[in-house]
Amino acid sequence: MAIDPLKTGTASPLDAARLGQTAANKGAQGAAAAKGAGTSAPGGTPAGTRDSVELSADYRALAARSADAAGAAGEAAGLSPERMREVLDRMKSGFYDSAQVRDQIAGRIQQDLGL
Questions:
Q1: How many structural domains comprise the chain?
Q2: What pLDDT score does 104 carry?
Q3: Is residue 53 part of a domain?
Q4: In 1-100, where do the E strands start and end?
């Protein structure tokens, strides 16, 4: 891009060529819009069509295994769904944010790690 500190108002040859391209592009876009007027929905998709997503069988199987593993992990840890809800409610209420509870948690983690 050429900089004209005196702002003489004339475009450099490179700028003139670029401006010409812009005008040509706008003309092409206008022609395309006129050709497809009324057949395009917002976002440029043809009117009357909808986006869709197809999930592969492999993905569905992976999602099912992940859900099963999450449930099994809770059961293996001895957490029933009721106990899990209780823990989540305590987290939301800030029960675990007290210094006393944090100290107990840290102590149990140290025991579990053998420290």
A1: 1
A2: 92
A3: no
A4: none
Length of the chain: 115
Structural domain of 94: 80-115
Using the structure block, give the residue that is written with the tokens 């053998």: 114
Residue 33, classified by CB atoms within 10 Å of its CB into exposed (0-12), middle (13-18) or buried (19+), is exposed
pLDDT, averaged per 10 consecutive residues of the chain (115 residues), comes to 62 60 56 53 66 88 79 65 87 90 91 89
This prediction's pTM: 0.30
Residue 99 is assigned to a structural domain of this protein = yes
| pLDDT at site 60 | 87
Query: Residue 7: inside a domain, yes or no?
Result: no
User: Does residue 101 lie within any of the structural domains?
Assistant: yes
Q: What SS3 string covers the chain? A: CCCCCCCCCCCCHHHHHHHHHHHHHHHHHHHHHHHCCCCECCCCCECCCCCCCCCCHHHHHHHHHHHHHHHHHHHHCCCCHHHHHHHHHHHHHCHHHCHHHHHHHHHHHHHHHCC
